[in-house]
Amino acid sequence: MKLETSKMRRAAVSVAANIVEGSARKNRSEYLQFLYISISSLAELNYYITFSNDLGYLDAKAYDELRTKGQETSRTLQGLISYIQKSKV
After folding, report:
1. What's the rounded mean pLDDT across residues 27-52?
2. CATH no. for residue 80?
3. Which CDD domains does the entry mention (predicted)?
4. Sign of dihedral through CA atoms 72, 78, 84, 86?
C-alpha cells in the first residue's frame, strides 16, 4: 500500500499545483491546458481511491467521503473550465 499512498499524494498535490500554475499563465489556452491536466490528475487519484477500497484498505465511510469529495472537485473543475472557455478575458 505504500506505493499507492505515495502515488495518491502525488496525484492530489498535482491537482492543486496545476490549477495554480495554469492561473499564472498569460493566456486562456495555457490556463485551460493546465486545468485539463488537473482533471487528469484527479481521475488518477479517484482510481487509486477505488483501488484502495477494492483491496480493503478503506472502510465504507472513508470511501464514500473520498468519492464524494472527488466528485465535488470534478464538478467544480469542470465548471471553472466552462467559465474560462466562455469568458472573453
Report:
1. 95
2. 1.20.1440.60
3. 23S_rRNA_IVP_like (cd16377)
4. negative
